[in-house]
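Researcher: Predict the fold of Sugar ABC transporter permease.
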Amino acid sequence: MPGKGAGRRRTDARPPRPAGPLSPAARARRSLLRGLPVLPSVVLLLLFLAGPIAYCVYYAFTDMRLTGASGARFVGFDNFTKAFGDPDFFNAVWLTLVFTVVSSIIGQNTLGLGLAALLQKASRGVRSVASTLVLAAWVIPEVVAAYLLYVFFRKEGELNSILSFLHLPQQNWLYTLPILAVSVANVWRGTAFSMLVYSAALKEIPQEITEAAEVDGAGRWHRLWHITLPMIRRSIGTNLMLNTLQTLSVFGLIFVMTRGGPGNKSQTLPLYMYEQAFQNSLIGYGTAVALMLLVVGALFSVLYLRLLRTEV
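Model: Structure tokens for Sugar ABC transporter permease follow.
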């Protein structure tokens, strides 16, 4: 038989006191403990990212060369002054912007969104075949893709064979329109990434919203402009930022197809930097160009991050 006070509740239990404000030392200790899991990542970033950037910043202000006297002498802003006085540098900046806008911001972005929208309505079989064909261009190595496009655009290549079959005028595309040829090559190779990003974004749009707009009489373009694009704005900003940064640094594709030529008609900043640093042995000057390319990428990143912070 249970004891007399077995079922009696304890009335002397006191509720726990609310915790008071932490002392500065306790807050610092708590912040330190919370930051320990990310400490290895921070160390790796400082070692492999911040370290090389600091190294480049230092050598951008020196006259370091691959040949001649060893060592590097501090020359201040001479490398940057030389760049802004060189017409070839401004030509490389202009071609870099053209290559980035045509192949990335317009080409890959627009084509990727269009393919994602079309595949969303296609059957499973068509979607599998089309996705495989688009992804194949993305997964093959850059050098292989560049050689395939070189064979396609050269004077005796497949493009001129198709034009000849259609009785259309032919030309040496890598000589007459080299920046357009490498831009098309970059679109062909990089569209798959945009397609994957937009495919995932379009699947997140509630079907009820588009169906309601369709019932209200909204046309296809009206739904695209007023519903689809605003709802995937963050995906658009993320895709533009990643594609732009990748396109700014494209080197192997252009080098294999045209080597920046003929002359300097397809010489973007990465190829101009390579020529100055390793062909002309001007490591300091080439590093200064690389630093300016880094600044251009940072400006694009700031622009897209502002877009990402905009609420839909």
